[in-house]
């Protein structure tokens, strides 16, 4: 069994990004290069974005005409005491102001809809990609890290495209035009205004490096915090049950404090950049003093000084805003990087072109068959006895397992004949769940091959393979949907009420009809509103609803009470008779559903035979089954299936006999 989610994980692990990436990994990636990766998403709306940027530049430059009108007004009508001229000047100023406001409004309208579309497209791509990523990826990544990428990071990107992207350009052009106007008005004063540009640029360059590292850290910490909150909500029963709310609250506080610390560092850096942008303001002050002196000396007209200073003041916002536009761009670059870390992860490999010869005829296959002979296999099924489900020298190691750890599965050779039910028994942690996960290719074998009716599973499209093989896991996951929708997930889209009713009957899940809205009843997140046994029966119904040719069940009866277990067993017997099945079993009652039993031990199949044969001949198996003695379900035998109960008790007695 893989480890269950959330609270079982070490909290220490949650505090560091699960992906192990960090600011250090960005070295060499300039903000611009990183942001350029957004181009494929921006491309479809580029016409609107460019138009919006152009409109914003025109709006901003319209604002710069105002000082020129002021100059004309001061040196002309005001100096000549011409009231008509003053009114006319005021009218020009009003019209310019209205034009500027309208143009900025138009820009906003132009970008709003397409940018919402860009965000939606990126989110849809991320979701689609997450669905295609292998299980190994999801094992490695904390869910909160993925959630924060799909929410906070994408929101940062939309804000960047809507605002800083345009305004870095608009403000750049406005500053350039403004400076040219000022130099034309009075070049000496213009040079004074330009002096701070050099230190400001050096500071921006240094700032980018420091801010990018802090921004990355903060966004990763938001991901960690999201993980913790999500796990606390999902694992609320465990937290309450074990009285862990204090330690959980402490972990939350620690993470929040760390995030707060990082945000404060960000705020300090922001304060520094705001401070450095006071230099241009100082320059304006100096220019005002020098300009006034020049007017007093008669070297400069009052109108020119007014125009010069109002241009300088009009440039205040474009200059001041550069600091926070840069920080927003920096955060957007970090968000882009985090987004593409997921998007760049390799999805489940394309279906490999492999040797699809039936294995019985391949050289390696014959060798392995020879070794399997003692299990009394072959002869049934498809070509050369290759019918059914067959493991050929299968080895598997988890990609993230420590280098010195032995592989979970070393060499598994096993043949489940067509129509046969094979129980898989083994001590806890021997790799039973892992082996079952290899059949629908939730993980890829490290070595060897698995065949279904002689065909290598890697040669089949995954969709086809997963239509052939149905799976029910020990931990039954139900989605926030109706009972019917949850069950019919295991069938073709065309399946309807008939199939649903049959599957519910087989899985002894008829309780669903008695729910408030029958099979239309919504089950809560993860089906938490149902009992463990009810969820397990619905998961079982989902596995059988599509009448799969191959069925893989991971201890499907573990959460059932004795009475229900007996009922489900009886129904399952009918289903199993029609399919080829591999059933992970811990209890004799489940083992007795199978035609034969395979014992998994030390990464290999140590023995195959009927339950009774193995009880007599294999001490490890007998020991495992005698452990079930303590299982009240195995002993109570509440009269639902007298034959199997009697067999079970005899078997257990036999096992004890053998042990002695
Ligand atoms: N995602 C994973 N990454 C690394 N190791 C894993 C992973 N999942 C399981 N393992 C390890 O693989 C081994 C086999 O686990 P598996 O869940 O297959 O055992 P099992 O026989 O099904 O156990 P049980 O009977 O308790 O359900 C265990 O040592 C486990 O720690």
From TrEMBL:
Domain ABC transmembrane type-1 per the UniProt entry, residue ranges: 50-331
GO cellular component: plasma membrane
Single GO MF annotation: ABC-type oligopeptide transporter activity
Membrane topology: Multi-pass membrane protein
Domain ABC transporter intervals: 389-627
Annotated region (Disordered), positions in chain: 1-27, 347-386, 630-660
UniProt name for this protein: ABC transporter ATP-binding protein
Lineage, uppermost ranks: Bacteria, Bacillati, Actinomycetota, Actinomycetes, Kitasatosporales
């Amino acid at each position: 069994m893989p480890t269950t989610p959330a609270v079982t994980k070490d909290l220490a692990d949650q505090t560091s990004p699960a992906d192990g990436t960090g600011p250090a990994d960005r070295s060499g990636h300039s903000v611009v290069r990183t942001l350029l990766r957004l181009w494929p998403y921006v491309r479809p709306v580029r016409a609107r974005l460019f138009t919006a940027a152009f409109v914003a530049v025109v709006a901003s430059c319209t604002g710069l005409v105002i000082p020129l009108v002021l100059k004309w007004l001061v040196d002309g009508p005001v100096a000549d005491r011409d009231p008509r001229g003053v009114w006319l000047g005021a009218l020009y100023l009003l019209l310019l102001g209205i034009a500027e406001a309208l143009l900025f409004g138009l820009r906003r309208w132009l970008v709003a809809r397409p940018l919402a579309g860009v965000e939606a497209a990126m989110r849809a791509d991320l979701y689609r990609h997450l669905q295609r990523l292998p299980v190994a990826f999801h094992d490695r990544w904390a869910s909160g890290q993925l959630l924060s990428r799909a929410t906070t990071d994408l929101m940062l990107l939309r804000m960047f495209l809507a605002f800083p992207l345009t305004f870095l350009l608009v403000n750049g052009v406005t500053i350039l035009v403004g400076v040219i106007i000022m130099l034309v008005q009075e070049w000496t004063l213009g040079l004074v205004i330009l002096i701070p540009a050099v230190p400001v640029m050096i500071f921006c360059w240094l700032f980018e490096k420091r801010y990018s590292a802090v921004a990355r850290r903060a966004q990763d910490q938001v991901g960690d915090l999201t993980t913790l909150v999500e796990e606390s909500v999902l694992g609320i029963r465990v937290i309450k049950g074990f009285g862990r709310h204090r330690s959980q609250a402490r972990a939350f506080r620690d993470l929040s404090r760390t995030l707060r610390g990082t945000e404060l560092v960000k705020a300090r850096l922001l304060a520094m950049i705001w401070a450095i942008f006071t230099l241009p303001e100082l320059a304006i002050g100096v220019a005002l003093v020098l300009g006034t002196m020049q007017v007093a000396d008669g070297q400069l007209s009052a109108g020119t000084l007014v125009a010069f200073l109002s241009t300088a003041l009009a440039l205040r916002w474009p200059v001041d805003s550069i600091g926070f536009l840069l920080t927003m761009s920096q955060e957007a670059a970090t968000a882009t990087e985090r987004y593409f870390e997921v998007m760049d992860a390799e999805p489940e490999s394309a279906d490999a072109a492999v040797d699809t010869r039936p294995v019985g005829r391949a050289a390696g296959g014959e060798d392995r068959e020879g070794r399997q002979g003692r299990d009394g296999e072959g002869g049934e099924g498809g070509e050369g006895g290759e019918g059914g489900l067959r493991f050929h020298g299968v080895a598997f190691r988890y990609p993230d397992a420590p280098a010195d750890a032995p592989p979970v599965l070393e060499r598994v050779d096993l043949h489940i004949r067509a129509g046969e039910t094979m129980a898989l028994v083994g001590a806890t942690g021997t790799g039973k769940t892992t082996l079952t996960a290899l059949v629908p290719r939730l993980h890829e074998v490290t070595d060897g091959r698995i065949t279904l009716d002689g065909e290598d599973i890697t040669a089949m499209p995954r969709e086809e393979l997963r239509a052939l093989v149905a799976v029910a896991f020990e931990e039954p996951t139900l989605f926030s949907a109706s009972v019917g929708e949850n069950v019919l997930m295991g069938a073709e889209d065309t399946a309807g009420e008939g199939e649903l009713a049959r599957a519910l009957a087989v899985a002894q899940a008829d309780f669903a009809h008695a729910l408030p809205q029958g099979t239309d009843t919504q089950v809560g997140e993860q089906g938490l509103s149902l009992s463990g046994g009810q969820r397990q029966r619905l998961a079982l119904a989902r596995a059988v609803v599509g009448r799969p040719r191959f069925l893989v069940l991971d201890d499907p009866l573990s959460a059932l009470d004795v009475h229900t277990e007996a009922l489900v067993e009886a129904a399952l017997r009918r289903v199993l008779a029609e399919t080829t099945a591999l059933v992970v079993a811990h209890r004799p009652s489940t083992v007795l559903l199978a035609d034969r039993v395979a014992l998994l031990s030390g990464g290999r199949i140590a023995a195959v035979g009927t339950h009774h044969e193995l009880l007599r001949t294999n001490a490890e198996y007998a020991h495992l089954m005698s452990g079930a003695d303590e299982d009240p379900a195995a002993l109570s035998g509440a009269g639902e299936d007298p034959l199997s109960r009697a067999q079970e008790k005899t078997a257990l007695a036999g096992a004890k006999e053998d042990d002695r």
